[in-house]
Amino acid sequence: MARNTQVPADHNPPPVTRTLAEFVANHPSRGWSDAVDHEAHRTFFNWLGCGIGAAHHEAADAALRALAVMQPAPQATVLGRKERIDISGAALVNGITSHTFDFDDTHLKTIIHPAGPVASALLALAEVTGASGRAVIDSLVLGIDVACRVGNAMYPDHYDRGWHITGSTGMLGAAAACSRLMGLNADQTQMALGIAASTPVGLREQFGTMTKPFHPGAAARSGLFAALLAREGFTASKRALEAPRGFMQVASTKCDWNEITDELGSRFEISFNTYKPFACGIVIHPAIDACAQLRAEFAKSGVKADDVERIEIAVHSLVLELTGKKEPKDGLEAKFSVYHGCAAGLLFGQAGEGEFDDALVTSDAVVNIRRKVVATVDPTIDEAEVRAVAIMKDGMRKEVHVEHAIGSLQRPLTDADLERKFSSLAAPVLGQAALAPLIAAALGLSAAADVHQLVRLSVPAH
Amino acid sequence: MARNTQVPADHNPPPVTRTLAEFVANHPSRGWSDAVDHEAHRTFFNWLGCGIGAAHHEAADAALRALAVMQPAPQATVLGRKERIDISGAALVNGITSHTFDFDDTHLKTIIHPAGPVASALLALAEVTGASGRAVIDSLVLGIDVACRVGNAMYPDHYDRGWHITGSTGMLGAAAACSRLMGLNADQTQMALGIAASTPVGLREQFGTMTKPFHPGAAARSGLFAALLAREGFTASKRALEAPRGFMQVASTKCDWNEITDELGSRFEISFNTYKPFACGIVIHPAIDACAQLRAEFAKSGVKADDVERIEIAVHSLVLELTGKKEPKDGLEAKFSVYHGCAAGLLFGQAGEGEFDDALVTSDAVVNIRRKVVATVDPTIDEAEVRAVAIMKDGMRKEVHVEHAIGSLQRPLTDADLERKFSSLAAPVLGQAALAPLIAAALGLSAAADVHQLVRLSVPAH
């Protein structure tokens, strides 16, 4: 089956590999607003919680057993675990765990989860180089800018083609970030981006398997190694991103070069990063949010879950297309059930990883509420929107209208929300008592002399 | 600059990931002809010489310094060197050196250099598992079959798009070979191929830089790790090659599934592997061959180089387009000079890496002969062909017509030719005295209980 396309190449692209390399090497430390710097800390903090939360997932166990064959040196921390492995392996495993629950950050314009590849490479490297917290945050901002700008230039064509864009731009973000952290000059950074361009990671076909979270991990490892090679004088094409046979034209028919260069150094893509409040696909978030708001109303007026006769929700057609499963049998299926999402919102006011526990999903209390949810497609309702009405046994009605769910750019999680999310992820792994100093260390990272206290607090004490 | 293509996906592809996995896991040991088994030994032997020959190239030095940051365990041999590093690093570095001189093997139908990714992963793994020589050769045949069959299915579109097909099919070959060597079953092998499908390596834009030989090395490492992950239960899509958003449809518009399944288990792609006799682009090979034949004629009739007035060669237009450099300044430029190639053939009867030495390229003897070469494009001459006429000062003429150069499928290198090539590469690194037992070990690999003697002989004794 031969299919035909011949896309004319752009033979005169601007030198974006060089432009990005100079930017990464030369942009001043903290050369951005307080808001951007704060968002970088939030991005790092959210990544850290996700990584710790999934520390004992079977994907992490399998990856660590595979790495053990190489007898890795005990150089760097595996989040939430006692094993220490080499920095390349730590970048890989922390990248895997940070994306395992699909609960990490999202650059909405490209659907890139930017922290996984970038922060995972950075923290491992910083642990052996002794880099300052300030340098880590600087490198995080710049690395994420590189990945998301390349993503902006190629999205949506690159993603539509089937690339999992988190891994297929993440190696560039990680290479940029590690180059910056090691103080490489623009020429070396250009080589690091060039080497990394030859190792894109990730296919959408892998969604639903362990290889999906493998993508940010493998991208972190590739980018880190590209920077190490570049430091040692390894060479690559100077136009590896933009040339007719460079990465971007090979992997995307859309290559909007302006997305890379416009407002470079004044607009930072990390500003547009968002954090999931609920551990499931973003399309159910408005419904969960609406039901959590109903729960809060009920609490004020003394209504009990048992008093509810029916919950009617009016949703966009995509919601039922993607998440129309009425009777999910386990946690994984529940992530594709707007009915379960509504039940979690009503009963618990949240939908973290714990609310997708297999036993909870099939418990009587949850099943009972879930069956009261009636979902209807309403063509006047937007994807980001939901209308929910609770009808009580006594005929009383409560209505909630969500235009943008909590966690969207319009209604970002507050720092307190992020702390609650972090705690729900980290407490089962590290214990509640360990959390306060770790939260302080993460949110104050840029003031730390190095990352050693942070990583010490990120693993179980006993 | 947005460019438009929407290629309709093939939503009903055959299950080639499964088919290949079953083949790799279940095909009997030595389930092929003596000729195929002998070709596998030749492929391994040629790869070994190339790797040893480039052991001290600056690309290898840089890669080893970058790897040293990870403090690798001394598990496996780096060809031609005393350092021992972990198996993942050894797979990488041996993959790099085997392709550094661009002197390795070529599967002509796809321009894949198949041994680099596959043999580099296998030898490193065999060193720690204690696998038999027989198992290594079996795995080499099967791994190369996987890489080249996937290549056949996607070539030429995949290559035209800009992928360096050696690295972007090599990770599959390495994953298949390592799965076989570890005795993974078909389900596990299917997962290994699936994981590897997410990590293709290589852009043609990198040609002329160290990142070109990095491609087979990185593919070797990716494939090896994919097999290790699969053994530990790591999961991937079962249709990672063929699905609409699987690797092949993402990376190629041509996906000829029959190329994967036709005569599977009876036709082996390693049969079509060739070995370069000269360390330069294949387009000059007929001219070098012709001049080497003239040299042999001269020797018989007592003619000296000084007696030659002029060498006229009639060539295909591509020869002057790609290699028309008249006065190369160094070895790298000389690889793109048909004039230098002819001089090397006439003076030395060969054009190994030594004949592209910088000092030799600009020596009086070489320059003197080079300037006597007159090349003319002849539209009746095929790409594989050359006519060369030597005109002596006394007016005498000698003519040679080469229809297919030495090293082509029509005129394969003999085992003796391969031994000469091997010696020219390995002698400067290991010393002449070390070669005989190593040659015997490589060409007799399938009879060895393990690879330990072979790898011991592949590094300097002192």
Structural overview:
Helices cover 52% and strands 8% of the residues of chain A. By secondary structure, chain A is an alpha+beta fold. Chain A has two domains: 273 residues, 2-methylcitrate dehydratase PrpD (Orthogonal Bundle), CATH 1.10.4100; 121 residues, 2-methylcitrate dehydratase PrpD (60s Ribosomal Protein L30, Chain: A, 2-Layer Sandwich). In chain A, helix 1 packs across helix 9 and helix 2 crosses helix 4. Chain A is globular, with a radius of gyration of 23 Å. The first copy, chain A, starts with 15 loop residues before the first helix and ends in a 5-residue tail after the last helix. The interface between A and B is large, with 75 and 75 residues.
Write a brief structural summary.
2 copies of one chain form a homodimer. The first copy, chain A, is of the alpha+beta class and 462 residues long.
Main attributes of the structure:
about 450 residues; homodimer; 2-methylcitrate dehydratase PrpD; 60s Ribosomal Protein L30, Chain: A; 2 domains; 8 strands; four-stranded mixed beta sheet
CATH class of the largest domain in chain A: Mainly Alpha
* Largest pleated sheet of chain A: 4 strands, mixed
**Strands of chain A, count:** 8
Radius of gyration of chain A: 23 Å
How much helical structure, as a percent, in the residues of chain A?
Answer: 40-55%
> What would you call the structural class of chain A?
alpha+beta
Largest interface: A-B, 75 and 75 residues
β-strand percent of chain A reads: 5-15%
- Looking at the overall shape, the CATH architecture of the largest domain in chain A is Orthogonal Bundle
Summed over residues and divided by their number, the pLDDT of chain A gives a mean of 95
Q: Considering the protein shown, what is the CATH homologous superfamily of the largest domain in chain A?
A: 2-methylcitrate dehydratase PrpD
The CATH topology of the largest domain in chain A is what?
2-methylcitrate dehydratase PrpD
Note the overall shape of chain A: globular
